[in-house]
Fold this sequence. Notes:
The complex is a heterodimer of chains A (257) and B (168).
Chain A: H1 16-22, H2 36-52, H3 61-68, H4 73-87, H5 91-102, H6 114-123, H7 128-147, H8 155-168, H9 174-183, H10 189-204, H11 210-229, H12 231-243
Helix pairs in contact in A: 2-4, 2-6, 4-7, 5-6, 7-10, 7-11, 9-10, 9-12, 10-11
Chain B: H1 6-15, E1 25-26, E2 30-31, H2 33-45, H3 47-52, H4 63-75, H5 88-98, H6 112-115, H7 120-123, H8 128-142, H9 152-167
Antiparallel strand pairs in B: 1-2
Amino acid sequence: MELKTLDFKNYHHVRFDEIEKKYKEEFNSEPMSLSEAELKSILALLFSIQFHYPVSSNDQIEKVNDILYERHRIINLTTRFGRQMIENLDDAYLEWFNELLDRRYHLSEIIKDIELNNFVHLAVTDYMAIRKIEFGKFFLNEWSKSIIDTSSYYFDSYSRNIKKYFDDNPEKIWVVAEKIEKANPSLTTREGLLLIFTLKEYFIKPNDSIVDYAITNYIVRDNIHELNLKRSVYMSTIREVLNQKWNLNKGKGGPRL
Amino acid sequence: MIISGNLVETYKTIEGLPKRKYQVIRGGRYYDKEELESFIKDLEGGSKTLEGFRIIIKEELSMRRALIVLLQEGYYKLKSYDDVIIDLIQLQNKAKIRFLIGNRDQEGLTYPERIHPKNPCARYEYNNTAKMHYKTALRILVNPINIYFIDEKAHEHLKTVYEDVLIC
């Protein structure tokens, strides 16, 4: 069996609060049929919940609601990726999906629906063992848009300097680590790594950093809530890194810190 | 808290985890199965190191599939489960150690024959829905690569089971 990478498609996403609103009358009583777009949107949300919080417990209700009600752009990235996996289901799973589409659901209980959760686990979540590389790359690309502030007057010139530095010194990516540490010594190792991967992906676009992508997958999976909360910290750390001196002494000992 | 110089070393350690340069994705379109399998093995090899950085390399797997893996590894040579005592709770605990297991999808995992039947074609002869579910459960375990099995022979054997179920 050939395994293809995801083919990123256009789709119609329906927010869960819109579904709640549309079926307000029946929400707590009658089981309802859902449209294909509605069901796929819910499945993508279920994926995100399963991926970040595999074991459900009461103390996570607010965190799960952050996913369900799409309160934060960063957290929504996982749902968007899940939706792409759903758009790329192969025939074996589509047959099952079509059966699910024929069923009716109690909307108030749909997030706990065992069959839907079972489907999402088997058809989507379990495939993250393979798709972790794609997810890591997708995440870094999207998340960099949130934490790299390109609005500064000097951004273009910083950006040119850094690109030039790595063109001249491709083996010295570790220098980024040094600068991140200097900019913010209180970051955890995981956070530091994620910022290195982010800057590397943004400025160098190496395209083959599969180990970065895979590690990003694990860091994001287990820490999405914290990553979202500390977004502004990462943003100012990166601003500080870009502000540091990236001198171009053509490999003669690298930059002075 | 990062001790000075630590992030550089950590980064270098992580970049050194793959034993060679892998071409996991070909032409931006297809996974190269052998390359992916080797890369994942290298990553798993570094799991203790990564744990030190509080990065957990554990693959998510539904309990159904995890139990299939463990039943397969433990009992694939047997023709029936009748002569062995299998403690499913113990097996589930084992699954939780080896894989990242969720708890939102567990239903009907009551006895081995129901989870991973010895003669699936006969068991599901009149139940197409159950057969479809079983087939899809086996899918990622046998295809495209071996991510989950430690016992290679058990994995090879499961491939033949899967091929049989596909045509019966």
